[in-house]
Each structure stands twice: as C-alpha cells, then as structure tokens.
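ugh finaly. both done.
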Amino acid sequence: MLFNHIAIVGLGLIGGSLAQVVRKKKLAKRVTAFGRNPERLQKAQQLGLVDGYQVGFASGFKEVDLVVIATPVGSIVELTRAIAPHLKPGTIITDVGSVKAAIVAALESQLPRDINFIGGHPIAGTENSGFEASFAELFENRICVLTPTVSSDRNALEQIRGLWTAAGSSVVSMDVDTHDKIFAAISHLPHMVAFSLVNAVVDMKDYAQNTLQYSAGGFRDFTRIAASDPIMWRDIALLNRDNLLATLDYFSRAIEELKDAISARDGKKMEALFQRSRDARRKI
C-alpha cells in the first residue's frame, strides 16, 4: 500500500481510471472524490470507483496524503491554491495535465513549502470523457511523464513514480519546457488538425448533401480525436499557446508544400512527400 488516503479532484476519464486502478491494486486504504456535482459523485461511488465523495473543496483534506488534480489544465492552478490551506504538512499534490511549464512555475512559487507538488502527465486517454468511460487498464503499457524541478522533494517524487509504475506505466522524467514542446507536436497539434478537418468538411457548402454521412474508415480513424472534450482542449491550446503556434506554422508549411505540388501536377514531388511521411510513420 503506497498511500493512506488519496483525494482525486476531477473524476473524469483519467481521474476515474486512476481511482479504479488504485482500488483494484490496493494502492491506498481510501480513495475520495472531490467535486461540485453531488449527483455525479454519488453515481461514481455507487459504481465502485471511489470509497466516498465530498462536494466542495473547503474541507475534508486533513487526512489526505496525496491529492491528484485531474481537471482541465486551465483550472489546475486555481484549484490547487484553494485546496492547499486545508492540507496537512507533507501532503503531496500531483496533476495529470498535458501542459506543464505554466502550471509547475505557478504552483512552485505559490504553494506552502511544506506541501510537495510533482507535475505529472500520463500519456493515456481516449476520445471519450467522463468516469463512465474509465477503466483500470488505461495506463498499462503507457508512458507517464513526471516533471520534477530542482525544488522538488525527492521522496515525494519517488512516491508518485511508484504510483504510476504500479498503475502499469513506464515512468520518465523530463524538464517542463521540453515536455511542452514535444507534446505540442505529437499531441496538441494532431487534435487541432482533427478539429479543423472536421470543421472544414462541415463547412463545404458547395456540396448538395451532407458529406459526413459518407465517411468511412479513413476519415473516421483520422478524426476520432475530434470527439474529445472541447473545454479540455481549449485550455490546453491557451496554456501551451506559443509552442502550439510554432507547430501549426510547421504544419501550414507542409500543407502549402503539398498544395503547390498538386497545383503544379508534380507527381514526383507528391510521391516524395508521401514516401517521406510513410517511412517516418512506419518507424513509430
């Protein structure tokens, strides 16, 4: 058993899946969900995801030794600041957000010195949201990135590393700036492209019929992530704005290069572009 009492704030897909794996593998004596919607929290308890729940964040944290913030990234700093005064000394706080630099910088400067924050990002998820879509195996054979700094407590870091290892993930450490650049390219950009592609097809007014009704495997596979939570991705785009804009510039240049080749009927250029992409994708 790694912890006595874990509090999960934000019981969606990630928070719900973590609650399930903690209970399944007995990684804590008790798991409590904190939130604002009593009906939703009660349903989560009835489904067996958590041992109990509490509405609001003003109290109930005194016996907690780990707090996991699993809300959209735009609310992580505000919620953590609100919770911190109610925690006992030595409590660990971690998050699961896919943007790290802004969050880690804010919390390391604002939290009390006896509260230990370790930034975390499990590389797991689906296009579905809500704890109804959660499952204990979500983190198995996945990577979880931790973003400790020179100020991070080493014991707290090892405890969080142990949590994600027990959940089935391979844990790696990374500095926050590197993290945000990497995930702007391989996670945030693909979501922006998927959202934009679906919107582009929806906006094709020159077609007499609903084009989307004819979509098959290719379109559906490529745009699966466009069904993701809009609020979550709005917050990610805002918090990782500069890195995301840089990756969008790269994507725009790639689209323009392909557009120019098509316009010029340059089959050799198109084939070269497709071959380069195919070779890179096969190495993944």
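ok and the 2nd:
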Amino acid sequence: MTSKFWPGPLTIVVKANLGKIPLLITAQTGFVGLRMPNHPIALELLKTSGVPIAAPSANKFGHVSPTKAEHVYNDFYIDSEVTILDGGQCNFGIESTVLKIVETSDKVFDLCILRKGGVSEKALLETISDLPKDGGSVNLTAKKH
C-alpha cells in the first residue's frame, strides 16, 4: 500500500512497537500514525536526519488545514514559540487520509478510514483488492462521525 501512496497524503495508523516507540508518542493509545510527506524539504529533512521524526499536525484540532507557513504561524504563535520550515504554499490543500490497520486474528486485518482525505476510499479498495491475500482477509470500513 505504501509503495502506491507514499510519498503522499496517506497516514497509516498501526500498533506501535512500544519497545522502540515511547508511549508518549502514541498519545497513550499504543498506536502510531506513519506518514511519508511529498515535499522536497520534508523529504530532505527525513533523509538528512537519518531518524524518524515525530511531529504534530501543523494546525490545532478542529482548525482549517494550513496551506501556507503564515497560517501555521497564526495558529500557534500566541501559545508557543514557533519554528517553521517554509517550503512555499501547498499545492494540495486537503488533509491526508488516515487509515488504521488492526490485526484482529491471524491473517485477518481490519482497515478503518478514520479521516477521509487526499487518497479516496475507492483508490484504497482498488489497492487492497490487488494485494496478495496469503490465506488472510482484509475488511475496510469508514468511521462513522
């Protein structure tokens, strides 16, 4: 799945390896969201650092997604010190799709779309249908709000 949609607007939420990832990073849930952004500055930062980077969203919960560095600054400057890597205006102003993957039993996976975004449910279904099943099964649902 990642080979088709990464880098790009897909966040995959999986059970964290708590031996390597602090519980704090999982917001005490035991799950972690993984993403590979599609921007040259973000990709270079990841490459140069040589380590995974844990970062929050660039907007506060419930606020409109930013498309410019100015939007991020305006959302955060009052509450905290802000450092922004300004790569210019986003060319894709929609949030990433958030897909949670949970193994419910041996080779049975539940995939739940927690947030619709830049990758459509149809594209996810097509990709899932092309995956080798190896005797397992995959169930895709969308979270009801």
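summary for the 2nd one i guess: The longest helix spans residues 40-49.
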